Amino acid sequence: MTKLRFKAVALASERKPVEVKKPTSKTSEYYGEKVFNRKAMSKYLSKETFKALNNAIEKGQSVNRNLAEHVAAGMRMWALENGVTHYTHWFHPLTDGTAEKHDAFVEHDGQGGLIEEFEGKLLAQQEPDASSFPSGGLRNTFEARGYSAWDPSSPAFIVGDTLCIPTIFISYTGEALDYKTPLLKALAAVDKAATDVVHYFNKDVKKIIANLGWEQEYFLVDEDLFMARPDLALTGRTLMSHESAKNQQLEDHYFGAIPERVQKFMEELEYEAYALGIPVKTRHNEVAPNQFELAPIYEECNLAVDHNLLVMSVMDKVARKHSFRILFHEKPFKGINGSGKHNNWSLCTDTGINLLSPGKDKVENLRFITFVVNILAAVHKNNGLLKASISSATNAHRLGANEAPPAIISVFLGTQVSDILDKFEKSSVKDAIVVDSKKQISLGVGQIPEILLDNTDRNRTSPFAFTGNRFEFRAVGSSANCASAMTALNASVAEQLRLFKEEVDGLIKKGKSKEEALYEVLKKYIKESRAIRFNGNGYSDEWKAEAKKRKLDCETSVPVIYDSYTSKQSIKTFSGILSEIELHARNEVKWETYTKKIQIESRVLGDLALNHIIPVAISYQSILLTNVSKLKDVTDNYKVLGAEQLRLIEKVSTHVNAINAKVHEMIDARKAANNIESEREKAVAYHDKVAPYLDEIRYHVDKLELIVDNEMWPLAKYRELLFIR
Ligand code: ADP
Ligand code: MG
């Protein structure tokens, strides 16, 4: 093992950047060449089919059999011309990542040969025997198989020799078994609810589009060093290792020059992403050594989610070509920053208005305030749910760890928008309606500058921040499927907007003018949702105490946080999106996943501690003992001359004994937890009784790392893992 470590260090340090075959054409020319996008559609589909398909996509209507037949024929022709031999329905089961099952395009031709075939029904629907995916008991209860069904709003694409068709994944009785189904429903709900509300201001709007721009953080590690760390390879994070003397203190990595090996990786990644129609734009070094970020230009939410998942799998593949392994874990290394995935979210109309951009006049600004205030109210009411939507065993390491927001959802508005809302709360409709520029100034509503100064006033400690023309949900984990957070957020805002419309219309019916009604309800919401607004330091202990007083959800245990999914409020929020049965079933999956992740970590740590660390520590101790006994052979003064050796012998014993005892206690805790029937209680036991040992054992292992002869230490150290040359 020791040999493996040093071999890996040597290989990693000699590795050269991999040259990338660069396309000779401009980015705009090969952009989307592997996507069955509008350009390809217009070439391979008849005019009528093209029009009918676009119509169905824009209106969110289902595609009938006849249309599917025509689209499939065009798609097949396009795919075959691009060297494709297989196709797959590509979906997002309730695990990390995506699923695909490839089938060849071939069918019997009836004369002993084969022909290339791809019928409409194969495009529209499939029944993959994907019975091993988690369903939280839904499929047992209903004894049904899972179906995948085409999502025409996300275009098909080619990976290698395979045509990938984005699909939803549902049970025979229609329950969602994936992330995409509820996301599409939440997006439809927010479209409907926001369109209704926007009609107070703009009658011509027909559709509201939720946009998402994600920022993906990740780490790269040399592949040989990665393989020399079984914990990293099996769990995605290092379960032990002392901090490197130098890590991110000097802030010399952040925005620094990108190492050439990494630069080459990024170039190839970007090329692949562009070919797949993913508009990647930003790349830079992040705060921690070996940490980087990739961000595209924002897109429609459903497409952006698909693109994030797709790019994560492309990143993994390209990293391997460059002899790296990519880490999406939220906290692969202790003592340095972890990785998140900021979700920049906004609502736009089909007429091109960003509803989160302050406007030029009174009406536009009242519209801006309407949406901001409703979002505040939605986040306030659903703060527990939103936290649940980003909570996982892995993200728990990052939240509240003084680098990412705490496990409390609050909204940062910045001083400017806060002031506007405060003034609005005290204003009356007369203030705004009177065309008196002075009054408007004092009110602030008519005078919000188009680009807010707050753009620069970024609060990095806030989990949900207004950043000029969008909200940035920063608590999302780097390994997460954005759909989870985006479903919860869009569903919350949709429910809130529906309620708002009801209340405003109610007042109008009672004889109030539209403006009066809007003012009255908005002012009430500003008051009611005040508790969610926080512009201060989210890392501070004072905030934790204050948040408790404000009755915000302060729970930190991930399995308990999931309870929010089935709260009264959440069931209302998800009405028409996820049924109570589905919510319960999905929580079963979440608890099971949580348990399994901690269980795997606990097993890996136990094995490594017993098989790698203790034997090496004892071998080193034997050397010390031999040394002391040899000293004793030659001098009576051995206790003085061997003082340091004796001290180390004792220390090694202390740590070895502690590790041994704690590993066995941890195994007992696991056994006890495994006997618990309920998935929720089991996950709680893993959180309360098993997980704490991971830190306790690590503490002693890391102390040993500082004592034991470097030559003997079996695992690659942080200083070796973390600095790509
Ligand atoms: P930061 O300064 O936070 O690192 P950027 O300005 O680079 O971020 O933008 C981050 C992401 O936000 C990008 O994906 C960008 O396209 C996206 N974004 C910008 N404007 C909007 C918007 N109105 N709605 C949604 N996303 C947006
Ligand atoms: Mg950002």
Gist of the model:
The chain is of the alpha+beta class. It has 27 helices and 18 strands.
Bound ions, cofactors and other small molecules, one mention each: adenosine-5'-diphosphate, magnesium ion
Radius of gyration: 29 Å
**Poorly predicted sequence stretches spanning 5 or more consecutive residues:** 433-451
The overall number of domains is 3
Q: Assign the structural class, choosing from mainly alpha, mainly beta, alpha/beta, alpha+beta, or little secondary structure.
A: alpha+beta
Task: Find the count of extended strands (DSSP E, 2+ residues).
Answer: 18
Assign an overall shape.
Answer: globular
**Helix fraction bin:** 40-55%
Average predicted local confidence, pLDDT: 90
Largest sheet: 9 strands, mixed
The tally of helices reads: 27
- State the distance separating the first and last CA atoms: 23 Å
State the CATH class of the largest domain: Alpha Beta
Description:
By secondary structure, this protein is an alpha+beta fold. It folds into three domains: 31-178, Glutamine synthetase, N-terminal domain (Ubiquitin-like (UB roll), Roll), CATH 3.10.20.70; 187-578, Creatine Kinase, Chain A, domain 2 (2-Layer Sandwich); 594-721, Four Helix Bundle (Hemerythrin (Met), subunit A) (Up-down Bundle). Helix content is 51%, strand content 12%. The protein is globular, with a radius of gyration of 29 Å. The structure holds adenosine-5'-diphosphate (ADP) and magnesium ion.
